[in-house]
Design the sequence.
């Protein structure tokens, strides 16, 4: 059963019914015990009063003769509750009896006290008492069926009252449950009326205290979804803006190439077109990297990665391009394990080295190192890429990690995405980023400090 309202109603009503049934059972037992006690006391009282009311000499009435009340003094038969007989013990016959009393003795063995006897084939509750001389015995009795009828009528009245009470309580409980669930119903209607893009927090003021944590967790999820959607919108706007410029340049360069008659000029235009195409491809690659990180930025970094291997492989990929610019790339590594994801770490290292090669200028020196940091006692892994190029003003050190930010006055054209990816991946791996002066007191130095890998993680990697 998935309905909360139905569960509450069934649970409460079932509890009520069981409680009322238990009360009825206890009431029946108590009433039965009480009525039996009252009946026995009534039988005893009638017997004693009858015995005290008898005239002297009644025991001498001869056999075959007995007395009864005159007809006009007899009670209606349906009002008779107790019947009695007066027996002469000396002669063994009845000398006085009540109207409707059985022909035979009520107590066949003439034993005094309370007992249950079969009279005319049905059970009776009887009481017998004799006088002090043992001459006269009064026997009184009442059919058990009368007692059962009284109990049945009394319990029927109680059952009707309890049934009416249960029905009233059921209506009240249903109303209370409906009233209690109504805030959730209103909230669900509010959600259904919302547009698919409306991620505003749900109202919690009218909700019961028990439901607020659930709705507040929904609101936190909506907040994260809103941030994701806003990020996607910004990404689409920024990507469209960044792609528009190279596409326009490629269009112009293609038109110029089509108009060229001189082969040398045509070759020059095609080279320009190739460079623009390569920049566009690089921009597209970075945009895809950014989109993947935005989608999976909160994923757990579970694997142990050999960062020194990643750095060595990627640094060699840049050797040819750096040599064409007259640049020298030096590499210094030692075995370094970090906890992370191989692909994002590869993007980080690639963008760091690409940034140095692209902006340090011709004939620059670029130093790449991956080693354990000495002196801090924790064994953190330090990845450093430094160059002796023109560098970045200190006032803009933090801004170079903003998405699509470019340093003013830079001759080399870039997308402004690379270092933004570096900062995002570093944050994903709980690493810190530091910016400083590069080689020989000039240029730019970017350091990424990764937290030391725990011993058990290193053992697992080994």
Sequence:
């Amino acid at each position: 059963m998935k309905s909360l309202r139905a569960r509450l109603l069934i649970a409460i009503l079932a509890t009520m019914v069981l409680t009322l049934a238990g009360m009825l059972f206890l009431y029946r037992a108590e009433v039965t015990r009480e009525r039996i006690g009252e009946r026995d006391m009534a039988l005893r009282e009638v017997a004693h009063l009858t015995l005290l009311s008898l005239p002297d000499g009644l025991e001498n009435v001869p056999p075959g003769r007995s007395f009864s009340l005159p007809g006009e003094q007899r009670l209606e038969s349906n009002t008779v509750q107790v019947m009695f007989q007066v027996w002469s013990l000396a002669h063994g016959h009845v000398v006085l009896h009540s109207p409707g009393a059985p022909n035979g003795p009520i107590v066949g063995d003439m034993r005094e006290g309370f007992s249950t006897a079969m009279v005319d084939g049905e059970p009776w509750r009887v009481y017998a008492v004799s006088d002090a001389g043992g001459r006269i015995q009064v026997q009184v009795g009442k059919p058990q069926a009368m007692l059962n009828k009284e109990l049945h009528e009394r319990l029927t009245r109680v059952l009707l009252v309890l049934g009416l009470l249960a029905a009233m309580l059921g209506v009240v409980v249903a109303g209370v449950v409906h009233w209690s669930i109504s805030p959730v119903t209103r909230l669900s209607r509010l959600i259904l009326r919302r547009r698919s893009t409306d991620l505003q927090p749900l109202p919690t003021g009218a909700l019961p205290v028990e439901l607020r944590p659930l709705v507040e967790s929904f609101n936190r999820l909506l907040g994260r979804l809103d941030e994701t959607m806003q990020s996607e919108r910004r990404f689409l706007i920024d990507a469209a803006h960044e792609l528009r410029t190279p596409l326009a340049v490629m269009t112009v360069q293609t038109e110029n190439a089509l108009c060229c008659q001189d082969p040398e000029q045509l070759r020059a235009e095609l080279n320009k077109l190739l460079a623009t195409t390569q920049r566009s491809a690089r921009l597209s690659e970075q945009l895809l990297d950014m989109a993947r990180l935005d989608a999976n930025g909160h994923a757990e970094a579970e694997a142990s990665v050999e960062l020194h291997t990643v750095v060595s492989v990627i640094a060699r990929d840049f050797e040819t391009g750096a040599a064409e610019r007259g640049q020298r790339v030096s590499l210094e590594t030692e075995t370094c394990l970090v906890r992370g994801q191989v692909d994002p770490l590869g993007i980080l290292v690639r963008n760091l080295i690409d940034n140095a090669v692209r902006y340090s200028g011709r004939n620059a020196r670029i130093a790449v190192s991956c080693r354990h940091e000495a002196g801090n006692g924790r064994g953190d892994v330090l990845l450093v890429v430094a160059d002796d190029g023109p560098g970045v003003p200190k006032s803009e050190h933090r801004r170079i990690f903003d998405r699509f930010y470019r340093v003013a006055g830079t001759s080399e054209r870039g997308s402004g995405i690379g270092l933004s990816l570096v900062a995002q991946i570093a944050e994903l791996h709980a690493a810190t980023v530091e910016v400083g002066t590069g080689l020989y007191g000039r240029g730019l130095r970017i350091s990424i400090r990764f937290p030391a890998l725990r011993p058990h993680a290193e053992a697992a990697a080994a």
Q: What stands out?
A: Confidence is low (pLDDT under 50) at residues 71-80, 456-462. The chain is about 50% helix and 15% strand. The CA atoms of residues 234 and 447 lie 28 Å apart. The chain has three domains: 1-54+81-193, 203-296, 301-450.
